[in-house]
Amino acid sequence: MTDLVEKTLHSKTIFEGKVIDLRVDTVELPNGETSTREIVKHPGAVAVIALTDEGKLVLVQQYRKPLEKLLFEIPAGKLDPGEALETCALRELEEETGYRCRSIEHVVSFYTSPGFSDELIHIYFTDTLIRGERHLDEDEFLENYEVDLQEALQLLKEKKIDDAKTVYAVQYLQMQQ
Amino acid sequence: MTDLVEKTLHSKTIFEGKVIDLRVDTVELPNGETSTREIVKHPGAVAVIALTDEGKLVLVQQYRKPLEKLLFEIPAGKLDPGEALETCALRELEEETGYRCRSIEHVVSFYTSPGFSDELIHIYFTDTLIRGERHLDEDEFLENYEVDLQEALQLLKEKKIDDAKTVYAVQYLQMQQ
């Protein structure tokens, strides 16, 4: 293998926000030339594919400001500092949907945009839900829905399910059939 | 449905880069309170699930600076301004792998990180490859690989396939079996 690694020559912090930080790295390319890389730092996230006793997929509908539109998504949220992945999965599921669960398992983790961000999202699965009460963050507004596979595929077709983790979740459900 | 829309009160550009821009919007929440949203603008991208005549998945290995590691990914790249999606798919496939193809079809599109970015990636599929010569961008360094499904699943297990579009591609292949 050719050495493909890019060596950092300089790193400049541009912005430190409440969710993301932005920095620009000047790098030495494998051929000795220099270039810059724009890098968004993110704390990472967890999402849950949750199936009800009737086999329906639990979704939340929320407004996504970057897209200026409403999306149906599987429950998800950012990791708190030092928080264990499974703790985060259980917390976000309960906060956003009111559901707790008797067991939960890790399915897959993936970087959402490896070209410009380090965001890593961890996908969990549960079908052992226990109904409770939801309690949203103060700046979080969302509606709850439960859909069967046909309804999920219809939402996908209508571009109302339109994000990586939820498209993955629908494909995951299709594979379980 | 409760009105979940967030109204923009103020928008501040923080950074304009060669790949992404960053702005912070001050928004009015559905309950009348204000909050801020950190938003990364991205031109959008196209990726190709390309199968050789032997049914192998075409991958490129490249160094991803935000993760400081090498990933195996399906061929992909950013949209040029005004570029048609299919044109971009064919261009990136040829640039990164040398392959052209007789036909290509759209599979799905998804937002990678709707919480903080508008990046939309369009996934295409082809199994009608014609071998040619690759010609990379000047700041692009990558190696080409072709793997069968078992090898792809092994790379997934080893976290060498580790990003949204490629994890999706492997699941897509599994569904075709």
UniProtKB/TrEMBL annotation, chains A, B:
Pfam families for the chain: NUDIX
Annotated residues for binding of Mg(2+): 76, 92, 96, 140
An example Gene Ontology biological process: nucleoside phosphate metabolic process
Protein's recorded name: ADP-ribose pyrophosphatase
Cofactor list: Mg(2+)
GO cellular component: cytosol
Keyword entries, A-Z: Hydrolase, Magnesium, Metal-binding
Quaternary data: Homodimer.
GO MF assignments: metal ion binding; pyrophosphatase activity
Gene3D superfamilies reported in the protein's UniProt record: Nucleoside Triphosphate Pyrophosphohydrolase
Family note: Belongs to the Nudix hydrolase family.
NCBIfam families hit by this protein: nudix-type nucleoside diphosphatase, YffH/AdpP family
InterPro entries: NDP_pyrophosphatase, Nudix_hydrolase, NUDIX_hydrolase-like_dom_sf, NUDIX_hydrolase_CS, NUDIX_hydrolase_dom
Domain of life: Bacteria
Organism: Pullulanibacillus pueri
The UniProt record lists the keyword Lyase: no
Alphabetized SUPFAM superfamilies for the sequence: Nudix (SSF55811)
